[in-house]
Amino acid sequence: MAGITMDARIDKASEVDSRPANNLLRRLSQADYALLAPHVTVENTAANDLLYNPGDDVQVVHFPCGPSLATFLVPNEDGRDVETILVGREGAVGGIVSEGFLPAYTRICVKFGGPFARVNVARLEAAKQRSTSLRHVFARYADCMLAQIFQSTACNAIHSIEQRTAKWILAAMERTGDENSVPLTHEQLATLLGVGRSYASRVLQSFRAEGVLETRRGSILVRNRDGLRLRACLCNDAVKMHFEEVLRGVYPTAEPSSSPVRG
Amino acid sequence: MAGITMDARIDKASEVDSRPANNLLRRLSQADYALLAPHVTVENTAANDLLYNPGDDVQVVHFPCGPSLATFLVPNEDGRDVETILVGREGAVGGIVSEGFLPAYTRICVKFGGPFARVNVARLEAAKQRSTSLRHVFARYADCMLAQIFQSTACNAIHSIEQRTAKWILAAMERTGDENSVPLTHEQLATLLGVGRSYASRVLQSFRAEGVLETRRGSILVRNRDGLRLRACLCNDAVKMHFEEVLRGVYPTAEPSSSPVRG
DNA sequence: TTCCTTGTGTGCACAAGTGGACAGACTGGA
DNA sequence: TCCAGTCTGTCCACTTGTGCACACAAGGAA
To answer: Which of A116, A170, A257, B217 falls between 20 and 30 A from B45, CA-CA?
Structure first.
């Protein structure tokens, strides 16, 4: 514990690197993370795994790591779920706002499979009670998540399907860190936007005609990211700005945050 | 303080009645409310007063009382704000999720004027630190508010303007306690739904043709509430159910909660 | 009363999005 | 290698919603 400054710095750096690849967890101070560390486990998930169904007791917070992605689905009278927001390595799902032990309102679903860190919500709440700074990080993230949902509400009200399609693809790529592909069928894209499949195909077709992307069976390859940005609404950017104000460095940047190794 | 049981009971009842007419404040135990009471003030507002603009530091929690109504507006690139959720006497606005002292993401606007109770957010947070039960009431409300926004996101994605119009009118009436009128021009209705004015007029016209409502210059008179319910999506009900599970009795019922005085 | 502003009803041409259909193209597994 | 199931591109008729225009109605101020 009482190492010289240099050692402490090195310890801290390597300690952060050994944490799960989730920006929220990595944002915590060493002391704060130490409160959680004994209760953190990591599990692998596959696409379409369900983390919560409406009405489930929320007892575990899930932190997407690396390229994993979760979404909140709102069930609908026809049985069609509507996808609302994406959560990747910048955040967490489950009891973030409610502080747990309440019935889930939405369904939470793994969109792109991969590792998720898990912490029991009671352990997290206990840690929040012990550390103000830890509590604040989570309150700040809750605020960012709220911003994301608000923006999404507005976006669905007024932006065209073309804009929303482009937005969704960019948002997914930012979070996974994948520079140019999204593993998604037209059908899945249509469902998550809440639109008809044939129209989704047509939008992709128009993007393809303009050289913005290519389509493969089951995936979309982005060829011109700036072109896609031009066709997207600004909802992503608005949310990103709020993240930067409230939780600087947590929102994934375009540059892969992993290895800036040169040489 | 050390009165006999009977006196205490009477004290409590009258004490609740003397609180501002906000269901969240009235839901608090006497002890919890006592922590807040010294810091509660009540102010009158007029329609279109702004409580927060995006970027403002959130320092005060506002509790709509009686028929007052606030809305969260998401600013848009064209300058058109998009209205997202309504908050009436079942809730509060400002720092509910963020716990304050962060820049506001949305604009918060008084939709229908009237009294609002105000509490400094730092005072509220201090009270939450002292009382677990008080903290839980607010965490539960935050969860309900989140549910409301999620539902709104889904609603905007898939429900028709006719359904959303009916939903909005019903939601506003539930909250104000006004049994059959909503003070709104077609223009305002259109703006808050994010649609064109002429189409909003046409939807109202069709409702009128079916005997569901009448229109006056600047207000809408509901003639057949069940008919309106039939034409609305079920989003209101889904949110209401979550309120009942999580914060029973806080969501305003159809019956005016005020004076069940007989004789 | 008269004027002037704001709100309302409606017509029209057009854009956006739906939902069903179907042929052809991929791809994994037998 | 072939088959079956899924995914994709495109067509079509139709509904929903847009945006603009314009005449008329209501109601407060002078």
So the answer is: B217
